[in-house]
Amino acid sequence: MTTGSNHSGPARQTGLSAKASRAFTLLELLLVLIVVSAVLAITSPSLRGFFASRQTADAAMRIVALTQWAHSQAISNGQHCRLNTDGRAVWLTVQHGPDFVQADGENGRQYMLPEGASVRFVLQTADPTQTYVEFHPTGRSDQAVIEVIGRDGERFLVVCDAPTDPFRVLSPREAAGR
Q: First CA to last CA across the chain, in angstroms?
């Protein structure tokens, strides 16, 4: 007659197989890695487009911020401000005497658009050669549509529908109707 438990028999093997069943085999780990790699390969092209579109949307929002600053500066300092572009960058100038000079600080520097993006002003002014949006000390501004086009062709519009309205961004879906 034996007393105590027998560790050399089937009970010990059952304990080992229980521990082994809780661990992953190399084959299972490889299978999971293959599935994750396939999912990433399928989704990565759409994510790349998402990030490019976000850069264009951020550029449009930056332009709105510049228009808001120009509007408030024109009113508070009693001087004309202009939002200028060369198609690849936008910047603000402020009237000092008869001349317009680059605005001081962060808002005066040239803001470059993302790689491959462009900006175009469509102004509703009497002068067809005008290449800037003007903000007046009275709180009025030029009516304008500022078109920001990303490298993948997405189109955001920064619009001011009336001289006393603030500028706002229209998404590509909203811009499609214009």
A: 95
In a domain, 104, yes or no: yes
**Contact call for residues 115 and 52 (beta carbons, < 8 A):** no
Structural domain including 138 reads 26-175
pLDDT digits (tens, 9 = 90+) for 16-62: 555 556 788 888 888 999 999 888 778 776 666 556 568 889 999 99
Give the C-alpha distances (Å, rounded to integers) separating 90 from 37, 65, 159: 41, 12, 15
DSSP string, 121-165: EEE-SS-TT--EEEE-TTS-B--EEEEEE-TT--EEEEEE-STTS
155: exposed, middle or buried (C-beta count within 10 Å: 0-12, 13-18, 19+)?
Answer: middle
Q: What is the pTM of this model?
A: 0.69
Tokens 């009516």, residue? Answer: 143
DSSP state of 93: E
- For residue 103, the Cα-to-chain-centroid distance in whole angstroms is 24
What is the DSSP annotation of 23-92? SPPHHHHHHHHHHHHHHHHHHHHHHHHHHHHHHHHHHHHHHHHHHHHHHHHHHHHT--EEEEE-SSEEEE
Q: How many domains does the chain have?
A: 1
The CATH code of the domain that includes 68 is 3.55.40.10
Instruction: Tell me if 133 sits within 8 A of 83, measured CB to CB.
Output: yes
13 in a structural domain = no
